[in-house]
Every structure is written in C-alpha cells, then in structure tokens.
Specification:
Layout: H1 4-7, E1 8-12, E2 21-25, H2 36-53, E3 59-63, H3 69-79, E4 82-85, E5 96-100, E6 108-112, H4 113-119, E7 125-133, H5 137-149, E8 156-163, H6 167-175, E9 179-185, H7 191-196, E10 203-205, H8 213-216, E11 219-225, E12 235-236, H9 237-258, E13 288-294, H10 299-310, E14 314-320, E15 337-342, E16 350-354, E17 361-366, H11 373-385, E18 390-396
Parallel strand pairs: 3-4, 3-7, 7-8, 8-9, 10-15, 11-18, 13-14, 13-17, 17-18
Antiparallel strand pairs: 1-2, 4-12, 5-6, 15-16
Helix pairs in contact: 2-3, 3-9, 9-10
C-alpha cells in the first residue's frame, strides 16, 4: 500500500536514553504539515483493513494519545464503532485505568475507567489504534491493566500505520492471540545509527514573550463552538463525525462570514461566505491556509482542515505536541525549526510546534478551556513571528 520512503523519516529524540530516534510519518499530520486529504486517505485505508477483517463484530477502538488519536477516530468513523482515546489530561469527575508507555518522554497514560467499563457488554473486540507499533510493550501494558481490573474474555487487535515488530515481539503477540493489522512493515535496526548522523544545528526558538498587537498587525478572531464531544470518554464513530460536522458548519458560517468584516480582510478566500458556493475561484486557490490541532486534540481539527481543502483552498494541517525533538538544518532531516510553547491545557507544561511557515490564514482549533492564556499567547506569538497576521481561534469545549 505504501513504501517506506513514502511514510518514514527519522528524527532524533531530545534527552531520551530509552530510545534515541523517533519515526515521523510524513503523511500523519502531527509534527510535519500535511495536506489533510492525504492524512485522512491513509487513515481510512487502515480502517478498511479492520472493516473487512471484522465484518460481523462490534468493535471498540482505542486511540493512543497523543499521536494516534486522529487515527483511532478515523477508524471508529469508518467502522461506526465505539471510540475513546487514552489521555494524559485531566477529565473532571472520572476515575482512571493507568498504564505506562515505557519509551516515551511522558510515560504515564490513562483511560477513563467509567467509559471503558460501560462499553464492555456492548462489544466483541477491542482494537488499539497506533501510528506505529515497535516492541508492542505499551499495548501489552494496557491489556495487562485491563485484565487486572476486569474479568474480560474479549479478544484484542492492533491497527497501526507502521509495524516494526521483531520476530520475538511477533511471537509474544501470537502466543497472546493479539492480531496486528498495518499499512507498512519496517525494520528499526538501523534507525538509531541513522538518527545520530544528523547535526543538532536546526533553529530553536525559545518561548516568545507577549508582543504588541500593533507591532505584528495581527487580526485575532475567537469563536466558541457548540456541540462538543470529548473523545477521552466513550463516543460512537458516526456521532463523533456528526459532531465534527456541526463544528465545521459553525466555523464556515461564523468565521468565513466575518472575514469580510473589513476591507483589509477582503482578499481572495476571505470574501467567500457561507451563503456562497462551497467551491472557490481559481485565484483563491493560491491562498494558503493552516489548521492547527492541539496536543491530543487532532481529529476535529483535521476534519475541519479537510472540509476547507474540499472547497478548493491550499491547506496544511498539523498540531502542537509534547514531544521534544532535535531539529537539524540538514535537507534530508524532517524537522528544521522548533518553537517552545506553553501548553494550552496547562501553563506549567512545555510543548512545541515544528515547521511553522507563513500562511494567509491560520485556524487554531482546540478543546482547551478559557483561562489558559499563556498557552494560546505563546502559540499566537510563534505564528506572528513567522509573519502570520490573520489568526482565528476556535474553542470547542463544554462551557
């Protein structure tokens, strides 16, 4: 389906003695900007494998935070399955099932216990969605946690974009009767040495302090959208998709309509309103739009990005991340510029955004609540520093 060259590029982890390299998927839309249609096409191709394999089974898809939440959501949408993601965020009024992700910089993972337990009598199989499976230990950890807490006889499967398990890991999975489905099989033997070849000479931009709005001539519009569904708790694939469509319709109506509010903003794509055609003129296609998700919150932003792309615009999508990754000036290295941010969920947490460029319009779509102004400010300032002057912030969360 895909070749290694199409999907795989290798980066160096920062200060991680457990695993010195990081496989970055070129089409996933996490660290590297990508056309949203390419990311969704890849996710849905993986979903089709699952759909064909388990035709008669009721599936429960679990996506791993933070890199595989959009993958899991896409699988759930395609199969109309129950869905939830693991999380490192706090969800009010719940308890958790804890497990670890040994090779990660942030090892603790959680699953909302009440939502998980409520699904057990409605499903025939649990499918874990990952961007990549290497040793498979993280999934074994969560399976052990589930079996320790619940008396379940439900079979488990894994759906990953990339599978790089060695023969010993595959043997363990076969013994445990855990089925694996994937788009690409790779071998990690040379990745550690490969990553070390690159110099640490990329551009690192530390936290940018508040900048005067007049200095950057920036227009910032904020929209609070209704219909929020929190995928950290259980949802259903089609219901989640419908909620994302509701989000998109609000963005299309409110933000695109408001784009003609000043003469300054009336260039090309900004003159298109919700009442006009869903297709734009040839001249508007030259306008560049960026849609950003935030950390674990990816699929709704990706969905909106794809809808904007469907209208005929040039669109890129990626997201902020907790992952500290080395940047290099080498042409063959995937990440060249790195911005330090404060998290939009926790002002005390450092996060990052990579490969920021200049766009005609930027949409930040997040489910972070109001009050974490340091996080949004740091992201907006990073965007401003790259020459982005038209920024819309969409908050999709419970009031």
């Amino acid at each position: 389906m895909y070749s290694e060259n199409e999907l795989v590029t290798i980066a160096r982890r920062e200060n991680n003695n457990k695993r010195g390299y990081l496989v970055i998927n070129k089409l996933q839309g996490k660290h590297i900007p990508v056309a949203p249609s390419k990311a969704l096409k890849m996710f849905f191709e993986l979903a089709e494998l699952i759909k064909k394999e388990y035709v008669e089974e009721r599936l429960f898809i679990i996506g791993f935070a933070e890199t595989a939440t959009a993958i899991g959501a896409a699988l759930a949408v395609c199969t109309d399955s129950l869905y939830m993601q693991t999380t490192r965020e706090n969800v009010e009024g719940v308890s958790y099932l804890y497990f670890t992700e040994a090779h990660s910089h942030a090892t603790e993972q959680r699953l909302v216990r009440e939502s998980f337990e409520s699904a057990l009598d409605k499903i025939d199989r649990i499918v874990f969605a990952e961007d990549e499976i290497t040793t498979g230990n993280t999934i074994l950890n969560i399976i052990h946690a589930i079996k320790r807490e619940f008396d379940v006889k439900i079979p488990f499967s894994v759906a990953s974009l990339i599978n790089s398990m060695d023969k010993e890991s595959e043997r363990i999975y076969k013994e445990q009767k855990i089925s694996c489905h994937y788009l690409l099989k790779t071998n990690h033997d040379i990745y550690e040495l490969w990553a070390k070849r690159f110099k640490i000479d990329g551009t690192y931009v530390g936290l940018i302090k508040n900048l005067k709005k007049a200095e950057w001539n920036t227009n910032i519009l904020e929209l609070k959208a209704d219909g929020y569904q929190n995928a950290r708790c259980m949802t259903k694939g089609k219901e989640y998709q419908n909620a994302c469509e509701t989000l998109w319709q609000q963005i299309k109506t409110e933000i695109f309509r408001s784009c003609s509010r000043t003469e300054k903003n009336s260039k090309n794509f900004m003159s298109v309103t919700a009442a006009e055609s869903d297709k734009v003129s040839d001249s508007a296609k030259n306008s560049k739009i960026l849609v950003l998700g935030t950390e674990e919150f990816m699929y709704p932003a990706l969905y909106v990005a794809a809808k904007i792309e469907d209208m005929g615009y040039y669109v890129k999508f990626h997201a902020t991340t907790r992952s500290p990754i080395i940047v290099s000036d080498s042409y063959s290295y995937p990440l060249h510029i790195k911005f330090e941010l404060r998290s939009v969920y926790d002002k005390n947490r450092v996060t990052y955004i990579y490969e920021l460029q200049k766009y005609d319009r930027v949409f930040i779509i997040t489910d972070a609540k109001e009050g974490q102004t340091e996080g949004i400010s740091s992201l907006v300032n990073a965007l401003r520093s790259r020459g982005n002057t038209d920024i819309s912030i969409v908050r999709w969360c419970r009031k």
